Amino acid sequence: MFACGVGLFLHSSQVSAAEKTYTIGTDVTYAPFEYQAEDGKSYVGIDMDIMRAVAKEEGFKVDIKALGFNAAVQALEANQIDGVMAGMTVSPERQVKFDFSESYYDAGVAMAVGTNSTIKSLDDLKGKKVAIKVGTSSAEFVNSIKKQYNITTTTFDDSSNMYDDVMTGNSVAAFDDKPVLAYGIKNGIKMKIVGETYEKGEYGFAVKKGTNKELLTKFNSGLKKLKANGEYKKIVDKYTGTNAKSANSNSKSSRTILGLLKTNSGTLFDGFKQTMLLTIVAIVFATVLGIILGMMGVAPNKWLNGLSSTLIYIFRGLPLIVLAFFIYIGIPNLTGTKIPAFVAGIITLTLNEGAYTAAFVKGGIKAVDNGQMEAARSLGLPYGKAMMKVIMPQGIKIMIPSFINQFIITLKDTSILSVIGILELTQTGKIIIARNLEGFKMWLIIAVIYLVIITLLTWLSNLVERKIK
Known about the structure:
By secondary structure, the protein is an alpha/beta fold. The protein has 18 helices and 13 strands.
């Protein structure tokens, strides 16, 4: 029996090791290295194909998380993910915090301007504004020459918005890795590459310093095999060769608003479902928290009053984006415990929206005439029963419109959670735009979706308000 037990244990350990899954963070707005496939169901590109091919060679699985570059790097620092594969240039600054694989691609920073621009070199940028992408080697390069050329910068989270800033004339140039700019121009952005290639560098797969050496060794081993058997060259040629694969359909009908809506309806619906799920779950927890804090705020106890006021002050005072990053990245950094992005989003919305809910719960209760409580107590009702039977029924009538308005606010606030990689409606829009580069049309579609939902909720609010009067 002991021998059988040991054998089963060893067998299960071997199976577990063979099927080990690593969570890999990436930025799927960075074609041709990583972007969403046109079917909206998978992520493709040079990085994604290399990572999957390496995993197949080395016998492990990968769970790709679309976080955005900046969020992916921070998530890796906080041990929320196992590695980052996102066109990440190896630099001395990054090597302080991360261990890198062998180089899998040679790249360099390039400058792109509008098709009718007369700018040809860095000297022509003196006194002008340029667009950069946060956390990238191209941004580091521009920041290093800002004083020399008297450049003003505008920073964006993704490449598509950065390109739009140049095409609309807000900035005179954008800096990005040359393959990415070339791919965008090939797929429709009205820009041209000028000048030389700056800050040549190498892309590497990154893990946190001193951790996941096993994964890094597997990646290097798999990459070596891919280069030896010719698979690596096939992957790169697939996206950058003469017959390179396009990130999106080039037919005019598919690039109209109706065409985009039809092509991306499944992806948009998934984002919509995630937005509604976040909103509904968060508003339930926020309502419970808000009622508890609100009741504490009107209780005949100074300590409870003070605690309520303090918590409301803190969570109303913190910007939602700061709170989201603190919960998703800060707490895991301190505790070493992973928090899933969805859970972090729910906690963020619960604390923020719960504080606002508590404020109007306190207001609704205090709006009930003091004589009501005095009359109830004079009839012999204890404080708790007087509150539940007399005060709360009157206060709820005052609060209901505010509850529905808070639901609307929570719905809109879910868009901020895109910064931690939750694939709600706004993040879904960013990913689609990175593929088709139709920023104006896609944001118009998403804006209309939000407006329709909010209009329906506003009608509901007005109906309820009329019913309770």
